[in-house]
Amino acid sequence: MSTVTAMPVGPGGTRYKEVKEAMLAALTAQEWKGGEVIPSEKKLAERFGVSIGTLRKAIDELCAENILIRHQGLGTFVAQHRRDRHFFRFFRVARRDGDQTYPVVTLVNFKRAKCTPAVAARLNIDDGTRLFVFTNALALHEKVVVVDTVMLPETKFPGLTESMLRSRSNTLYNFYQDAFGINVTGTDERLRVAYASELESKLLEVDVGAPVLEVERVAYSLNQKPVEYRLTRINTEHYEYIANTTKASENA
Amino acid sequence: MSTVTAMPVGPGGTRYKEVKEAMLAALTAQEWKGGEVIPSEKKLAERFGVSIGTLRKAIDELCAENILIRHQGLGTFVAQHRRDRHFFRFFRVARRDGDQTYPVVTLVNFKRAKCTPAVAARLNIDDGTRLFVFTNALALHEKVVVVDTVMLPETKFPGLTESMLRSRSNTLYNFYQDAFGINVTGTDERLRVAYASELESKLLEVDVGAPVLEVERVAYSLNQKPVEYRLTRINTEHYEYIANTTKASENA
DNA sequence: AAGTGGTCTAGACCACTAC
DNA sequence: TAGTGGTCTAGACCACTTA
């Protein structure tokens, strides 16, 4: 093969990283939406002016981050949050005997409020910014064991209403993706012991002030911007939170 | 270039997976030890009878799993557990303000015991198997906030003594690696609220029965076999456990 | 200067899916 | 059969490290 000098690489880094960033930009701009197929590798290679191998390396990384999904013979798709796939990547509560089931979610309340300084810092927005705030009770094996309080900046979820939340047919993150084009790709969580509030004690059927496991979550979207703040409280009498550092990414 | 029919691929799967398994076997057999450099890509490609590209794909995955580390211009090395690198991958406690520091470890006691059924199930060994059991108090910012109780099967750690644990100069997992050739590559953890025992209450300076965060960990070695059982109890008054699902694997 | 890994290419062939 | 992604190859050139 002849010696072809590669196209010059921009100052940012390497060709495939540039391609990856360009694809992330296209995804953020909703050029391709959740569940849709993206153009073939051949076409994308032409579009970005790189060889198939380089294009594939960019897609490799996006797949490793669960942003794209490849299907041999079918094409490459924008990953979609679904109840039946990757749900337990974000819902990490299981019964102590290991049994994992889908929670039955009940919306307990829905209101608007202004952002407190602590939450503002986590969401990287101004103190006092208007938020949607709602609480879900999650039942496992017919009993409520998790209470979620979710806070969303109004500007990122324009037009969100209580009835939209009640009538959604899939997961919350699927709803964010379909209705607002917000693709949650990762979360940071901090866990600690906390004490049940009056509302929580009723829902969880524990005494007021009983110790519960608190999970403070910030969810990030495609462009690494925080989009959701969530405070989860779990009755760990019969259930527990599962974490791992196993990098169980690509196991055939 | 001429059309070269690739070597037949074994029934197990693909060429690069075969190469990866062969390298894992070599690592498990301690052909290359922690911190050592492995042969160059060119030599390994010759040894396994594949092209550089295929060999690289195998190494790519081993690097993604933190088993190998590449250094451009230097070579590829067997990842070594070190206090100054990847330490916080396994030590996930930080102060509530986010400050992460290295714990000061004190060995509180060391004994031998027989395995209980619950631990036997986690470690996938027989009930009653002999174990080393020891407890560490971990201080952060000059105060004990974490108490670890570690259980190791005697057969996997032959000759382990209390003084070896006291005189180790690096992390526990570094010690496993150097002294016993056991390379911890991942952990499964389950978190729940528990209540301080007498010993824990003294060390953590809380009341007996005070709620603490319990982390039950099983650590796995290169060949995915469980090698360590650990019960961690944390006083989360000023500290917390950090988890994330961000897949922050390869960020330049 | 020599050796290492890092990137990129151009193309072949295979496996899977849909029509 | 056509089109997709999956694997593999053989090699060029670049960037980094050590001496």
From TrEMBL, chains A, B:
PANTHER family: MANNOSYL-D-GLYCERATE TRANSPORT/METABOLISM SYSTEM REPRESSOR MNGR-RELATED, MANNOSYL-D-GLYCERATE TRANSPORT_METABOLISM SYSTEM REPRESSOR MNGR-RELATED
A Pfam family that the UniProt record links to this protein: GntR
Domain (HTH gntR-type) ranges: 13-81
Domain of life of the source: Bacteria
Any one GO MF annotation of this record: DNA-binding transcription factor activity
The protein's name: GntR family transcriptional regulator
Origin species: Caballeronia arvi
Keywords: DNA-binding, Transcription, Transcription regulation
Biological processes, Gene Ontology terms: negative regulation of DNA-templated transcription
Keyword DNA-binding: yes
